[in-house]
Amino acid sequence: MALKEGINQENAKKINKIIRDEGPRGVKTQIQGDAIRATSKSRDDLQAVQKLLKDSDLDVAVNFTNYR
User: Fold this and answer.
1) Residue 34 falls within a domain, yes or no?
2) Contact, 36 vs 30, CB < 8 A?
3) Is the pTM above the cut of 0.70?
4) Is there a domain that residue 41 lies in?
């Protein structure tokens, strides 16, 4: 099996739904090509989203780029 960088649209939509349904209220998400961008005024909310995604049973490996 070959490794791929980024996520496909189907998985991006699943991740967005998880964040919308189970994540903190102030977090907004955008699908940007093969990545998802989550924004919030609260750093704690973004860290809660990271924990939520790490604990979720996803078909893809997630990795995070923080505070650029």
Assistant:
1) yes
2) yes
3) yes
4) yes
